[in-house]
Amino acid sequence: MPLPVFYMLLLASLTFYLIRRKRTSKAFVFFAAVWFLIISTPPVPRVLVSSLENIHPHLTEEAIMDLPDSCDIIVLGGGHSDDMGLSANNQLSTTAIGRLTEGIRVHRMLPGSRLILSGYKGNSKLSQAMVLYRTALLMGVDSAAMFMLEKPANTRQEAEEYVRNFGKNRTLIVVTDDIHMPRSVKMFRVAGIDPVPATSNQIIKYESRKRISWVPSSHYIAMIEVAVHEYAGMGWTALGGR
After folding, report:
1. For the chain, domain boundaries
2. pLDDT, tens digit (0-9, with 9 covering 90-100), for 71-127
3. What is the pTM of this model?
């Protein structure tokens, strides 16, 4: 990850300083400073994120109306809290809420569609799918129109579990983060389905493009970490990893 690389460069600088290799130590400080500017200012993080988010366009109302009414809509898991003192919607992570909201938006425009909620339990008391299901009920979605996939632990498993339970005959809309969509689409294609992407949780939005700050910020470090994670995931997939 980008930030550990920065710390490693500083550690190397300190090591060389302690063994009285001051010129080498200064070189590593310089490399650390350059690396920090690369990961904490807009150019590189925005290019990496945009290169992923621009692959699949937002699913507009016009595009939705061109789809068959009997679509399946799968909302990929995005994380939740185990705090049973919270309502279901407050248990969901902001990522999961964004994905579910987009899924419900599309579902309401396609009354004959099925909303499929995905995600395993892991070490939690409830599965991600169950928390999504309970939140969707709070938002007025008919329980008869929802199904849960509570076994998948990752995107590949979500694709495989969908095919195992529902087959390949219906049009499938996949809902996930914009930056995660390229890898998700690839996983579903490997499973034998060419899905319709419904992106959510866009990192770079039109409004933010007009207000770019060149001051180093943890926001850009977070952006580049997410992008690197997605590229690493796609590389692992290309090598046959799960």
Report:
1. 1-41, 57-200
2. 999 999 999 998 889 999 999 999 999 999 999 999 999 999 999 999 999 888 899
3. 0.89
| Strands 146-149 and 114-118, sheet pairing | parallel
Sheet of 146-149: strands edge to edge? 146-149, 114-118, 72-75, 172-177, 196-200
Please state, in angstroms and rounded to a whole number, the distance separating the CA atoms of residues 79 and 63. Answer: 28
Residues in the chain: 242
Q: Are 95 and 78 in contact, with CB atoms under 8 Å apart?
A: yes
Nearest-10 crossing angle of helices 218-238, 22-40: 90
Parallel, antiparallel, or unpaired: how do β-strands 172-177 and 196-200 relate? parallel
How far is residue 158's CA from residue 147's CA, in Å, rounded to a whole number? 13
Determine the residue type at 207: E
Q: What is the DSSP string of 111-137?
A: TT-EEEEE---TTSSS-HHHHHHHHHH
CATH number of 57-200: 3.40.50.620
Tokens at 192, concatenated: 């034998």
